[in-house]
User: Fold this.
Amino acid sequence: MPRRSSGRVTLQHIAERVGVSKITVSRALREPQRVSETLRLRIEEATEALDYVPNRQAGALSSGRSLSVALLVPSISNSVFSEVQRGVDEGLREAGYQVLMGHTGYSILEEERLIDIFLAYGVDGFVLSSTRHTDYAQRLLSRSRLPVVETMELTDTPLDINVGLDQRAAGRAIGEALIAAGYRRIGFCGARLDYRVQQRLAGWEDALKAAELSTQRCQTTPRPSSYRLGGELLSAMLERWPDMDAVFCCNDDLAAGALFECQRRRLDVPGQLALAGFNGLDITDATWPTLTTVITPRRTIGEQAARLLVKRLQGAPREPSRHDMGFEIALRQST
Amino acid sequence: MPRRSSGRVTLQHIAERVGVSKITVSRALREPQRVSETLRLRIEEATEALDYVPNRQAGALSSGRSLSVALLVPSISNSVFSEVQRGVDEGLREAGYQVLMGHTGYSILEEERLIDIFLAYGVDGFVLSSTRHTDYAQRLLSRSRLPVVETMELTDTPLDINVGLDQRAAGRAIGEALIAAGYRRIGFCGARLDYRVQQRLAGWEDALKAAELSTQRCQTTPRPSSYRLGGELLSAMLERWPDMDAVFCCNDDLAAGALFECQRRRLDVPGQLALAGFNGLDITDATWPTLTTVITPRRTIGEQAARLLVKRLQGAPREPSRHDMGFEIALRQST
DNA sequence: TCCAGAAACGTTACCGCTAACATGGCGGCA
DNA sequence: TGCCGCCATGTTAGCGGTAACGTTTCTGGA
Assistant:
């Protein structure tokens, strides 16, 4: 008993039109050199004439490979990750893979849910943007035996491939840069407080402690980061520590928001207060004054993740590895 | 001859463990009320014990529904679309659908490619963020008979469902607002020049012509929008039309960039030059001075798109419709 | 001339799941 | 008691592809 026929054009339709078997059509489309020239042309013509769209689900079910990869990012609106996404996308597209993106909202539970979903979709690999996962997520991943790239931060215990930068070292470096520039009463302001932000904070503390400076000027909140929040945090800090001469903001959004607040208060930057951000988003190079920041190689991280993943997808053996992509301090007008 | 068994846990494994047939397991998971209480519990237990992950590809292949929907946006880094995405995602998740996102880079050819790909993945519907498509894309969509929502802008000839706002009317409204505020030598600056920007420009011209003002102060470029570009365009405009007293930027990024350029030039905003943006991104409410803009209901558009799509996915009949979600002029400090 | 081997295409049997129909058992009612 | 109908579960036959192996035809060298 035939089920409702979806009206969809299948290999069978093309095969009948051309007068061959469907496996031949399948071959003509996937391995053209294995089919005779004339037949291949006739099949191509029929394929176009019928507007054939292959059914990847069927193909994946049969072959065990879906030619797709899941990319999980914490946030879509955060342009930090859109850069990573581009790198990943570009690298994987070249190799014939489609990237399916999900966003976790900075929650490892949501990450777990997405891993489950994308496993159900039969992806061939994962690019994650963190090194922290739930136990169940780790079990699912290791059980699946799929290649996994953990990005953005570095870890001593990678699940598989790890591509990122040393967030703590970067935090320390910007702290040292501020100290070198002569600032002594340096504050830290952080939002969201995910693991990466905590690492940056730890690095900032490292730098200040090494210079025997006080690390008390530290204002944090679990609220998500935004321009306005940058202004609010800065206001609170100025109230608590009026003598502060510099602030390292855990990301560029906060730094820009803090800068706007300074403008509102007619506070001269960097004359009365120096500001530094983190990531090197476009805005840091556009504001007046331009913002000192830590430029993170997001695009490169994405590309490298893609490159290593493709190697594994094409059969390279699994061997846990860690790739430090570094960072760069950009001293600009705000310090 | 058995093919390589993937090590994957299937319904069959659970069925054997519990001692029933796999269709019963399938039912227990999808329609729990159709299976006896005791059996259901045993099946649930086995499912958890084995970390069963269903194979959606197989399910979709068999049932003809994948419970997934494609959302195509022009750009991921543009936060305008991340808001739309959230609305869509939320609405569809409630109904049990997974959103698969793709980005077209503002190219209808890339959109066509993605439509082809997502059809191959067997999505059950599309949310597009434009009303302009290639002929082939339109053919594919109409052939597929899948529900399609075209968002962001309005059209007189929707493929199916259309949810958006009247970009031209919005452009006209901000033009009129500037005129009402007393400005007479009003410029327009636009980047990318996609269809929506062209509509805003047309609206701006409508307003100026209606007030018998010159529309010559118009600076455009096909380059993608960015903060820096806003500064560059403004510089060029100030050079060509030193008498200009207000500028409507086609989006908030340009407006913010223009504002930064004014700060750099020590040009008082709004005293010497008024600025207006478009979209109502967070930044417009954070800068100093805050930026006048047109607030577009991006989140609402996404939610409404999801709501209408779900209705169709659940069987509502197809009837082309157009939904104007409006906009709001936010007069702030920059004018 | 003969035969091995490659090239070109076909047959069969699945991948994992579900729609549709089939079956057996039990309660309720005339 | 007998029959109807429903509830819980099973059987069969695919969905649209592809892996693996088979068959036929062609080619060329001993």
Chain A touches chain B through 54 residues (CB under 8 Å). Residues 1-3, 6, 8, 10-12, 22-23, 26-27, 30, 54-64 of chain A lie near DNA strand D (CB under 10 Å from a C1').
